[in-house]
Each structure stands twice: as structure tokens, then as C-alpha cells.
Amino acid sequence: ADVMWIVACCAIAVVMNTSTYGLLGKASPVTYQVLGQLKTCLIVAFGYVFFDARAPPTMLMIRFSGVGVAIVGILSYALVKHKETQATEQKKTG
């Protein structure tokens, strides 16, 4: 059972590193950092779901308020980038 966890973690790491390598040339540095923050938020959320350690409610509120702030930032960045892309496309066609 322990060997399977190690193999699964290694496989996930290989996929993560491969996708990171593919992303580096296609995304701006800021976009890359925002995706890194999204990955961190997902790690915290899935860690809570799969490995619930019965943390005190205060600690959960602190942890997830930070995740909430990060998610708001990620969504704001995505919205701004989407508007920039639309404006650029309109300039090209119009």
C-alpha cells in the first residue's frame, strides 16, 4: 500500500513538471505565478477534504479566508486578462 502511494505521488509530480515546462513558454510570468497560487489553493482545499485533522474552527477560518482572498485575486486577474484579450482582438478586427 505504501509503495502505491509513492508511485502515485511520483506520477503526479511527473505530470506536474511536464505541464509546468509546457506552460512556461506560453504564459507570462504573472500568469504563471497566479496559476501557482491556484495550485496552492487546491492543495489546501484537497488537504482539508482528504486529510481532515479536526482542526479548531478558528484555524479553519484563518486558512480558508486566505484561500478565499487568493481565489478572489485569481478570478480578478482572469477577468482583466480576458478583457485585455478581447480588446486586442477588437483592435485587430476593427
Question: Brief overview, please?
Answer:
With 94 residues, the protein is mainly alpha-helical. The protein contains three helices and no strands.
Mean pLDDT: 87
How much helix, percentage-wise, in residues? over 70%
Distance linking N and C termini: 60 Å
- The total count of helices amounts to 3
Which word captures the global form? flat
Protein described:
- The protein is an all-alpha fold.
- It has 3 helices and no strands.
- The chain has helices at residues 2-24, 29-50, 57-93.
- The longest helix is centred in the C-terminal third of the chain and has 37 residues, at 57-93.
- The chain is flat.
- The chain starts with a helix and ends with a helix.
Protein traits:
94 residues; mainly alpha
